[in-house]
Amino acid sequence: MKKLITSLFIFLTACAGADERLPELARLQIGVTVEYDPAYVKLSYPGGDVPADRGVCTDVVIRAMRKLNFDLQKEVHEDMKKNFSAYPSRKLWGLTRTDKNIDHRRVANLQTFFTRKGWSLPVSQKAEDYHAGDLVTCLVAGRLPHIMIVSDRKNAQGVPYIIHNIGAGAVEEDDLFTYPLTGHYRPKLK
């Protein structure tokens, strides 16, 4: 019985801590991903990526999750193929089918996917509600969807930093509450 309890504890600890590795893995992109580039690029599948020196906010999340063997390109594409009408692609972009080159790089699609996975949490203005490895979406300039990874580092007031690419490459900044938040997600990766 003791062995079973120990094994269960190790398993649960590993599962709970997996998400907390996202900030460390996203931080590896700082100084590597140095450009913001939203260009449409034909990607290999699965595991396709734009060049490492460039990308957008979603690419920071995609690359960090891939280091944990979770391929958002594949996961989003497969879910969209089965449930296309659940995604905003027709409404927002006039699409009638999936596109494995770009679907996973759109914040609105990621929000839908995360919600469908059961990762949604309430949005709040309380710093303590945001844990390292959480994903947060917001609107920049009141209209541009954006996604960020909550860091394991905090400012002097205890507010977590975030890791994202908002215009000049991957950076870690004190910007959690700078823009109106639109979503809060806690990934449960395999």
Considering the chains and any ligands shown, give keywords for the structure.
six-stranded antiparallel beta sheet, alpha+beta, disordered N terminus, 190 residues, two-stranded parallel sheet, 6 helices
Helix-strand layout with pairing:
Layout: H1 2-18, H2 22-27, E1 35-36, E2 54-55, H3 57-66, H4 72-82, H5 89-93, H6 107-116, E3 120-121, E4 135-140, E5 144-154, E6 160-165, E7 170-173, E8 181-185
Parallel strand pairs: 1-2
Antiparallel strand pairs: 3-8, 4-5, 4-8, 5-6, 6-7
Question: What do you see in this structure?
Answer:
The chain is about 30% helix and about 20% strand. The chain has about 190 residues and is of the alpha+beta class. It has a six-stranded antiparallel β-sheet. It has a two-stranded parallel sheet with strand order 1-2. A hairpin with a 4-residue loop joins strand 6 (about 160-165) and strand 7. The chain is globular. The two termini are about 25 Å apart. About 35% of the residues are buried. Residues about 1-20 have low confidence and may be disordered.
